[in-house]
Structures are given as structure tokens and as C-alpha cells.
Amino acid sequence: MSVQPRRPSDPGPPRMSTLSVHAGEAREKPAHAITDPILCASTFTFANTQAVIDYVVEKQERGEYGRYGTPTEMTVERKLAALEGGGDAILYSTGMAAIVGLLMAKLNSGDEVVFFDECYHRSREFCVKHLSRFGVVTRQVKVCDYDAMAAAINENTRLLISESPTNPHLSVVDLERFAAIGRQYAVETLIDATLATPYNVRPLAYGVDYVLHSATKYLGGHNDLLAGVIIGDRERLEPVRKLRGIMGAINSAHNIYLLERGLKTFELRMRRHNENGMAVAEFLASHPRVERVFYPGLPSHAYHEIASRTMRGFGGLITFQVRDADWRATAAIVDRVRVARIAPSLGGVESLIEQPLVMSYFEVSPEDRRRFGIHDNMIRFSCGIENAEDLIADLKQAIEGR
Amino acid sequence: MDSDLDTRNGGAARAAPPYQFRTRAIHVGQGPDPATGAVVPPIHVASTYVQRAAGEWGAFDYSRSGNPSRANLERAVADLESGCGGLAFASGMAAIHCAMMLVKSGDHVVAGTDIYGGTYRLLHRVLDRSGVDVTLAPSTDLAAFERAMRPTTRLVWIESPGNPLMTVTDVGACAEIAHRHGARLAVDNTFATPVLTRPLERGADIVMHSATKYLGGHSDALAGMLAVRDPELWKELYFFQNAIGGVMGSLETYLVARGLKTLELRVREQCRSAARVAECLAADRRVRRVLYPGLATHAGHALAAQQMDRAFGAMLSFEVHGDLEKTKRVAGATRLFQLAVSLGAVESLIEHPASMSHASYHPDDRRAHGISDGLIRISIGLEDPGDLCADLDQALDA
After folding, report:
1. Which domains does chain A have, with CATH numbers?
2. Residue B31 Cα, gap to closest chain A Cα (Å)
3. ipTM
């Protein structure tokens, strides 16, 4: 961040909203413009041969070929690193490209990873179906069973992975404990903090090695771009960045600009997502037709205590089960909702609603669904930043039918 | 235009409850794309549209005359301003110019004295060449303002809060004055935004925005908007928009529509921070005076409390003790506030009206209307208010 407090009376480093607007950006931008340019260039020119040699020898941070990173991209990476409190951030085209990029860079044949089982099904699928083809072994243990995780570690284990909160059950990991296991066995740790965002929790501060975000969600925040990011220590991430340059799952100039723009209101949006999430969760918990609500902010939630201790807010994602409803009766509620739209994804300004059974698990066997805790009467609601009263009134009419 | 939300892809429209401002800012005119289900409507960059047969025009023909992305934004802003329709332009000045086309040679325009320098320039150096007479009168003094009216007055132009003195003008009273004399009232609502004041609800005929400012909100799109409540007036203005051609580009319509989704959040937060900064400055011995409608000492405070919805805007001006050089040093010494014209965005800005935003005023007019050389104008962004106060604190020592 170029804005440095210089007076002894200054109240410490800039706060998160200030970081959202300014962090990572040059104070003096090209053409003295107030915003960064959308840099569409595929390649970057050098003044002469010596300049090329200097770039290589001095490892200068500048554009060379677009696949290795562009100046606007580096700006957004610095902003994300600052928000998360990490040494470096690497942007990818999607959240999946980010986790795949890290796994491919860190794992060799014969290595093992241990997962908490509640995690995004595509991450799980990549590990189980595809990493296995390269001889990488994946072990899954029950979410938040720290003893089981420790027991699953052996001399080949290289990485411990979890989401926190998890999707769609909103289980919250004790990050201190999770990181401690990694340190104890000298195994690196990764937290997918997409649902938490750095506004609510910063896993690196608990000793976790890497934070992953699908920046498509809260970081971009407007349901209009795809992006992923890995944040952590610069040195540890060096091989990951190198591999990205080879694999090429980079983000695009236009996306990167929209992400930077979205981050400007990040703190503000998160506060509203948190407020709306809490208000909607409380409404749902009080409704007689709702059987169960998964939301870390509710005292009834299994992980409420650890969430209250570690999270500043609880986000906008809520999962609930409808009392005495089969999948069709549940679907009818989804279909009656008018403000939120039926769509996968989450974390944007527009509220979204989906029935996990139909949206992500329709072709999964009933046994597997039971194993993953996906019930027919489950609805996942991503609170946008609309007026909470409108969201609640809308959900109320949808749940009560007409 | 009603404020129902767009229905789901192809779904039948249902009577919708009257949604709150923030909900409408996210959804009206921004429904999913019927062609693909995309949750965010596409950016229509096409310049022209294929027609079924010669002489059988579809909804859109040529993008100067109409563009789906622009139409979405026009609908959204009209809804937020309680209008029947909107029009989107390439800049705020293009929007003002279009509204000014309503007057012709021999007509008379009355404008407030606390108005944007560009509006002043359009009135005094462009419109006057068409034989239009212009009188500037203080819109805060309603009796004096009414005395400026003539039988030929066709248009009254005000800003509230005014730029750069933050004077507060009674929109409803000005509408009555204008209508009593057979003129239309146009309000530049850029500073207040529809979050705080909706002039059409108070009797104004036209509301104008430099959408470059709060509506877009991110310092990255030049844009202007008009909204009206009379469909006939909309048609008249649409004719001029299409005939003159200063329309908003497709990418800008997208960025402004995206900005609208956080408009209420941003404006409310920026107002809260501005109130805190105003208090810091008002309590500072190095500051001669602070112009902010939220301060009880401000001449327009009572009116602002009644006309603006629970907040007083995020723009404020102040003067420091010392000479012009001191003023310029302060304006140049901030680290968080950036020295630039424009306003209303996430980044806080600082500027010196006499040499920047209001340089196009005749120096005599600047003096006559109270825009002193010592005035500094700031636009409060989304940074932490503590960080902003600390930055001004160190700059005041410059």
C-alpha cells in the first residue's frame, strides 16, 4: 500500500475499508488517471536488449508476456494480499484453477493430501478422480475431527485441506488447531475461505499456510466475473506462480479490472452481507415450517462457539431444511421466491437461491447424498445486499405458500 | 414506470410488493438475460440491429436511437428517481445540454448561483449565442429568486446541495415558483443522489445527474442521466437525445448499472464519514469555516434535514486560516485524498474550486457568488473516516 502514515500521531496502519479502496495500487498511475487501466496487451515491450537482460537478471516486477502476469493483475494481487494479510497472492481464471494450480505445484506422485470431507464437490472430485491418476493419494476425514486428521497423516502427507465455513453446511474449522496439526507434522495447510472472506476471518493469522478464494464470490461481488486466488507466503508460493505461467489459467484484463472495482466496495458489501445473513437466518430459525437452519451466527448452530470466537461476522450464506417437505414441496418454495434468483454461485449483490439436491447433487446416488449430508428438503440461500426486510418478506411468502 | 422486479427468465410477471430503494437499485432493469439466463444482463455493444423487413421496425434499430443495455440503465435510474423514464448520455454536460435544448432564441433561463462551473459555462458561453437570456439568482433566497423570473422564462435550473458552497435549495418551493411563471424546473441532483433527495417527488420536472459521480461511483465511467415524470416531456427530450447523439456508451451503461447496485450502501457510508470529517474540521483551530449541510451552524441545515433523507451528503468545503499559498499547500499535502476534480467515488478527492472545478466562472462572478480563492472542496470516499481525518490533520500543517 502506497499510503503510509508518517506522523507519530497517526492511528496505525490503514483500516480495511481504506485497504479495499487503495491497497496495492500505485499512488501515481499511468496518465495520472485515478483508476488503473484495463491492460489488454498480450505482450510488453522493452526499450532495448539491455532492458530485457535487466528484467531477467534483476527479477523485475513488470510485464513481459501476458501469461506471466500484467501490471494491473499485479496490482489486484497486491490488494488481495493486503486484505488477507499475506505476502503474495496469485490470481487465476477461476477458483478451481487456483486450487488445481496449487495442488499441481505442490504434489508429486506418491504424495498424500488429507481433506475434511465437507468441501466443494468439484475440489473433492479433482483430488479423488484426477490427482489419483498422477499417483497422489487423497484421504478424507470427517469435518472438524482433528484427531482423525492427525491420524490420517503419514510420512507422505504434504497438504491438509479444508473449507471454513464449509459449503453448504457452514461448519467452522478451529483454524488454530488445524494449523497446529500442520506444524506438528510439518505438513502445509490450506483453507478455502471463500465463504468467510478476509473481512470475517484471516486464516493466515492463525498460522494456516495458504488461503484459497473463489474470487467469483464475495471478492468480485457482482456475479459478473470468474476468478480465483491463492494467498500466502511469497517464497512458498514461488513454484505455484511459476507453474501458473506454464499452465496458463490466468485471468483476463477485463475481469481483473472488474475484480479491482468490486474490491473497492468489499468492506461495505461484507458488512451488509453479514447483517442480511444474520437477519434472514434469525427469521428462518423462528419460522415453524423451517426444520433446521445452518448458520454460524445462530446459537443453535453446532459451530457457533468457535465461529463467535474467530469470525467478525458470519457471511451471507444460509442453508436450511423445510419441515415435513419432500423434494417437490421444497422446490415449490424455491420457485415461489421472487427477489432471489435460482442459480448456483453465491456472494454477489443479487441474492441467489438453490436446492442443493437439484443444483449440484441431482446425479449423485441417494447413499452418497446421505453421506454428504445433502437432504431433499435442503435450500441454500445466498443473501445479497438487498434490503433485509424485502428478502425476509419474500422468503416468508414463499415458505408459507399461497 | 412501475418498480416491479424483472421476472425470472420468461416467467410471467406477477404483481410485486413495493420494494425498498436498495432492492430496486439491484434489480430494476437488471433482470436476467432472457436469451441465456445470465444473472447479469449482457453488455450490448452492437451499433445496429437486424430488422425483419423493410419498414417493419423492431424494438431497437440503431444504437444512437436505443440500445438494450442503455434502456436497462435508463429504466433503473428513472425508477430510483420516481420518474416515468430516463435518458442516458455520454457525460453530465451532454445531459445538461439536452435539457437546455428545451429553450429557444428569445427564451430566458434562471439558474442558481451555486452551480457547477460547466453548467455556468454552457449557459454563458454556448446558450447565450443562441439568443437565450440567462440570469443567475440565489436559489436560497426564494423572494430574490422569484424576482429574477420573467414572462419569457422557460427553464429554471438549480442544484442542491450547491457546488461548491453546499447551499441547500428548497426544491418544492422552486418548483412552485417556476410553474407559477410558466417555466419548468430542472434539478441537478448529482450531490444529493436519489438516495437522499428525489426532486421529481417534490415537483421538479427534470432531474439531472452527472452519473460519473455517485451513480457510477468508481471514477471509471463518464456518464450523464436525465429522468422526468411526464411521458410527453420524455418524448421531447428523447427527440433531442437522438437528434444530437450524445448517448452513453454500452460499456459505461454497464459500469453505471453495476455501480447502482451499491449506490445506497456507498452513499450512506460516505455521508456518515463526511459528517465525521466535518466535525473534525469544524473543531480544528486551523480551519476558518466549514460548509457542510449536516452541521447545525450551516444556513441550510434545517431545510436539508427536511429535504434530504436522514443524511447530508458526502461533499464539503472549507477554508483554512492563511493566504492562497497556504490553501494550495494544504490541498496538495494530503496523502489519502487525491488532488483531482470530480467527486462521488470510492476514492476521496480534494480540489481547489477557484483554480479547478470553477475556473470557468468569470472571476467577478466567483467573488460575487462567494467562491473564495481560499476555498477547498473535498469529496469523501469509502476509506475509513479515521484514516481520512488523520490525513487532513497532517495536511493542515502544510
Report:
1. 16-264 (3.40.640.10), 267-400 (3.90.1150.10)
2. 9
3. 0.82
What is the spatial distance between Cα B229 and Cα B231, in angstroms, rounded to a whole number? 6
Residues of the domain holding B228 = 21-260
**Tens digits of pLDDT across chain B (398 residues):** 334 454 333 333 334 568 999 999 999 998 888 888 888 889 999 999 999 888 889 999 999 999 999 999 999 999 999 999 999 999 999 999 999 999 999 999 999 998 999 999 999 999 999 999 999 999 999 999 999 999 999 999 999 999 899 999 999 999 999 999 999 999 999 999 999 999 999 999 999 999 999 999 999 999 999 999 999 999 999 999 999 999 999 999 999 999 999 999 999 999 999 999 999 999 999 999 999 999 999 999 999 999 999 999 999 999 999 888 999 999 999 999 999 999 999 999 999 998 888 888 888 888 888 888 899 999 999 999 999 999 999 999 99
Residue from A225, A339, A391 whose CB has the most chain B CBs within 10 Å, to mutate: A339
Q: Establish if A269 touches chain B: CB-CB under 8 angstroms.
A: yes
If asked whether residues B279 and B335 sit together in one domain, one would say: yes
Number of residues written out for chain A = 402
Q: Does A4 touch chain B (CB under 8 A)?
A: yes
A152 lies within 8 A of chain B by CB: no
CATH number of the CATH domain containing B60: 3.40.640.10
Place of cell 433531442: B240
Distance, in Å, from the CA atom of B137 to the CA atom of B368, rounded to the nearest integer, reads 11
Residue contact B382–A349, C-beta within 8 A: no
Cα–Cα distance for residue pair A255/A225, rounded to 1 Å: 6
Cell 488445524 identifies what position? Answer: A178
Please name the residue that has the C-alpha cell 436446492: A355
Quick check: is A67 catalytic?
A: yes
Do residues B97 and B196 both lie within one domain? yes
Q: Which of B232, B260, B288 is the last residue of a domain?
A: B260
Residue of A nearest to B19 (CA): A390
Of the residues A202, A217, A272, A380, which is catalytic? Answer: A217
